[in-house]
Amino acid sequence: MDRPDPFPYLFAMLSELRIRDLAVIEDLSVELGEGLNVLTGETGAGKSIIVGALSLLLGERASSEAVRAGAERATVEAVFDLEGRPGLGKRLRARLDELGLPVEGARLFLRREVQAEGRNRAWINGSPATAASVGEFGRALVDLHGQHEHQNLLAAEEQRVILDAFGDTADQAERVRELHSERSRLRALKREREERTREIETRADFLRFQLREIEDAELRADEDDEVDVELRRLDHAEELSGESDAVHRALYARDGAVSEVIADARDRLRRLARLDPGLEELRDQLDSLYHQVVDAGRAAGDYSSRIEVEPGRAEQLRKRADLLFRLKRKYGPELVDVLATAARIREELEELDEASLTLDELDRELVRADRALGEAAATLSAGRSEAAGRLAASVQAVLPDLGMPGATFEIALRPLDEVGAGGAERIEFLASLNPGFDPQPLARIASGGELSRVMLALKAILAQVDEVPTLVFDEVDAGIGGKVAAGVARKLEEVSGLHQVFVITHLAQVAARGAKHLRVEKHQEGGLASSHLTHLTGESRVLEISRMLGGDPESSASREHARELLGFPSPSASAP
Asked: How far apart are CA 97 and CA 92, in angstroms?
């Protein structure tokens, strides 16, 4: 049997999958290699559990019911070797750094734990992480196509991603998404400004009334304190005038005033100081005190003479105080707050005055954004249209080998009323899997097995551009056999030339193509079922392929058929 040339480079791959206490699996380590890895075994032996374990690392929800009976927790861990895909490895390491998680050279360790009590935990490179983060990295490294996962092919988003990958229009699609986001931002900003403008216009008359009320008052920040002080002075003018005049007279302006008494005492000490110089300091003190008393007496007189009661001034101040009180109660609590309210109202009214200019500029920006988005979407549409024809023809050419002779495959680009984040069209994969029927969306005409084979056809064609290094296929061979099985096997081997492929299969034709063959078996141990894994080589592999062919593994005919599929030499051919 012809085999592919040696691998042109070391694959980035899933090198090991470790499972403990999950369903019927007690302790299992699945070591995978480059190229095509196949897993076989009797129905119920645990093949689907291995796929289920892997799905936990891709973000699948975990259930405590999956924990093996009698165990406290189930764990699933995967080891990935990124050396063969340096670009992907660099991006994943950058993402690890962004999340604050350790980088382990060219290897990545993902782990999920499900406790019987219901709690779940996750790790990346040995550090605690969220299940969502584990799923993010898992999906970047493994593309799982099982009896449920291949339903993703029915999603419009998935079909758009596939077409852009094939047509090398992913960068153009990203540009359209960016421009659409910018247009959406401008539209949202315009709606916000329009709503704000309507709100201010509704309040404009009231705002102008408030501003006029405050501005007409011609306020000063501390005016209320000044008014209070002057009112108290006017209310007690007679007392202030009389008492200050009495102080003036007592200190300075009557016979026997304090200033005269101090002056007499100062003169006596001046004479005495001639006799005793030690009294000079006391004389100087009295001299200073005399001048202070004179100054105070004169000041009291000046104050008394200045007090004049202006007719109506008190009433005027009371009206002013009442106005200030009302303004503070409405816009305060202090005058400084009233003035701040006036400033805010001016800003709102200025905003209204400028709103028309702002909206005009936004309209101009929106026109530019619409034009840029339209041009980018048109370029993307042209690229997609060209790629759609090539991809459809390539898929249709592969389908007969996968058991769908006479099938047709088309890719429709349905124009949208308005360019969206995904472009100017809706991508739809159409097929007619039976001659004479018009192509219909895949969801309407494809069974689970047919969808798996359509996905396999796409993967075979996209192998050159698909960045995810490991592809896992479960149930891809459901309901087929004979020549179709051989075609499926060839396609899987073809895809494994550029990706690590892991296939769970019931078909001998597929199993025989594997570069590595694993068999899962279930045994009874201590009253509990337990699955075990064996790496098959040589004669053990011949026996397994013979079993899968449906013959008696012990018969020479069955073994000879198995050797033929495997490309092993016949024992008789090597005999002397």
From this structure: 9
What's the average model confidence in pLDDT over 140-169? 80
Which of 358, 254, 257, 248 is CA-nearest to residue 301? 248
φ and ψ at residue 122, rounded to 5 degrees: -145, 155
- pLDDT-derived band of residue 101, with 50, 70 and 90 as boundaries? very high
Is 315 in contact with 203 (CB distance < 8 Å)? no
Confidence (pTM):
0.65
Per-residue pLDDT of 231-262, as tens digits, reads 777 767 677 777 777 888 888 888 888 888 88
Q: Are 79 and 126 in contact (CB under 8 A)?
A: no
The b-or-e profile of 341-368 (16+ CB within 10 A means b, else e) is: bbeebeebbeebeebeebeeebeebbee
Rg (CA), the chain: 47
Dihedral, CA of residue 280, residue 285, residue 287 and residue 293, to nearest 10: -170
Domains and CATH numbers, the chain: 10-146+470-480+494-528 (3.40.50.300), 199-351 (no CATH), 537-576 (no CATH)
| pLDDT, tens digit, 9 for 90 and up, residues 188-230 | 988 888 887 787 777 778 888 888 998 888 888 888 888 787 7
The SS3 assignment for 76 reads: strand
Q: How far is CA 363 from the centre of its chain?
A: 30
